[in-house]
TrEMBL record:
The modification 4-aspartylphosphate is found at D497. The keyword Transferase applies. It comes from the Bacteria. This is Cell cycle response regulator CtrA. Signal peptide: none annotated. Keywords: Kinase, Phosphoprotein, Transferase. GO terms for molecular function: kinase activity. The keyword Transmembrane helix does not apply.
Amino acid sequence: MEVGASVSEQPELLILSDGESPMSSVAPGLFSHYRLTEVNSVAEAISRLTGPNPPEYCLVPGHSNTISETIDCASLLAQLPDAVLKIDQYEQIVWANRAAHRLLNIPANGEASLPKLFELWNQAQIVGPDFCPVNSVMATGKRAKTTVRLDEKSFFEFTVTPIPGNSPSGGKLLLATLRETSDEVLQQQKLDAVHQAGLDLGDLDREDVLDLSTYERVELLKSKLLYYTQELLEFDTVEIRIVDQESGLLKPLLDFGMDPTAATRELLASPQGNGVTGFVASTGKSYLCEDTTNDPLYLPGAAGAKSSLTVPLIRHDLILGTFNVESPHPGAFTATDLRFVELFCREVAIALNTLELLEVEKETSIAASTKRMLCEVADPVDEILSDTSWMFERFSAGDSETCDRIRRILNHTQDIRKLIRDNSMICNTESVRTPRLGNAHPHLIGKRVLVVDMDVEVRKSAHEIMEQYDMTVDAVRTADEALRMVRTFAYHVVIADKSPPDMKGSEMFRSLREIHEHLPIMLMTGFGYDGEHTLVKCREMGMRKTLYKPFIVDQLIKSIEDAISNSTGSVTL
C-alpha cells in the first residue's frame, strides 16, 4: 500500500468471527493494510458478499474450504430462479437476488435506496390465507406462507422466514421468497370451477323439472353444457352423443361448430368404421388425436379441424355417450386439457344419469296415475257394459233403432276404456326401461277375458294384472250377468268364482258351455272346503284348470295361455 493512502482507499477485508478463533490477535497485523469489517454469522457474510459494494477479501476461521462454500452459497442464492430477498420487519428490502431484481424491476446497485417490498410491488395483492405474513413471523417466530396475485392469471407464493441478524436500521431480518405458482393456482381454480359446474349441471330441481317435458329437460341440460364448454373449458367446437343401449347407435345430443354432415352422421359404438367417437364409445377410453390428417380413425367433424379430443361419458361402468372437441390447430390439446375434460365429463355423466332418473320417475308417475285411472273407471265401465248388455238382450227382438243405439253405447263404452289403456301403453313404450309385459307373451295381446266374482278387490286385481299384458278384461258380479255378457260378447277365456251368489257354480259352468261349447272356463277358489263338490263336477264337464285366490301372477298368466292354446273352438270378437 502506498504511504499516505487514506483509509477509504484501503481494500476491505471481511472477517467472519466464530467467537473462539484468535481473530483479535490477527486483526492488529492486518489493520495497517486493510479496512477491517467483522461479522458474526454466515448469513451476514453472504449479505455483504452479495450486496452493493462487496468487500475485496473475506477471512473465515476453521477449514480452508469454508470461504469457498460461503461464496458458493451466495452464488446459488443469486442464481436461483425464484425471487429471494432479505427484508426487515418493516418490509424494507435489504438485499435481493437477480430473479428478484427482474421481477420487481430493481435497478442495478439500487438496494441502498430501495423502498418497502409492497411499495415497490404495488400491483400485488395478498389473497391469503395469511394476509399479514411478516407480522405472523414476528409474532410466532415461525415461517409464514401466503398467495399474492398480480392479475387474473398471475400468482406468486410469498414465503417469509426469520433469519439471524439485524438490518442497518436495526430491524429484525427476514428471508422472503417469491415463487410463481400461476399454473398451479389456475389449475386449482379450474378444478373448483369444474366441480361447481357439476353441481350446477346436477341441480335439476325435482319439482320444477317434473313439470317440464322431455324435450324441455334436454334443452335445459344442453344450454348448461354449451355454456360450461365455452366459458369454463374454453372450447369453441363440441359434439356430445348418447349411446342407445339397445341398438348401439350414437344419437346426437348437442353439437356446436360442427359440420352439419358430420353432426347428422350415423355412428355406432364400434371401434371399426365409426371414427374416433365410435372407438371411444366402444372402448371407454379417451382418445387424443394430435393430427387429423394422419390419424386413420378420424372422420371429418368440424370444418378445418386439425386435432381433436374425445372422452367417454361413463357412469357406474356404463358408457352413456361421448364428448368430443376439435381445434383448427394441430396438437392443440394437452394432457392438462385431457385431465380437465375427463373431470368435466364425469359431471356430465352424473347430470345425464340424473336426467334419466327424473325421466323414469316422471314416466313411473304417469304410468301409476294412468293405472289408478284405469282402476277407478274399470268398475263403472263394467257396470255400464253389464247393464247395457241387459238392455240389448231385452230389446233385441223389438225396436231395431233402440238396439242400434244400445250397441253404440256398448261400443263407445269399450272405446273409452281402450283409449285410457292405449295411452298407458304409449307412456310405457316411450321408455325402453318399462316395456309392456305383453311383449314377452305375444299370444295374450288383444285377448278378451271375462272375470266373475262378487269381491271388488278380485275384479280390480284382474284388471291390474291382465291389462299389463294387453288383454281386455270385463268383470261382473253374478252368474246371471256372466251369462248375459257371454251371449252379448265373445270371450277367449272366462274366469269365475266357483260359488256365485245367484246359482251353483256347476250350473253356471254348464250354462256357459251351452252358450259356447268350446269356451275355456276356469273356476276360482279359496282354500276352503268345497262342500258342493263344484270343482269335481266341473272337471267332469271338461274344466281343465282351477285357480286360487288371491291370484299368483305367473300361474294366472300361464293358465290363460294354456287355456287359449288348448281351445278347439274359434272365437270371433
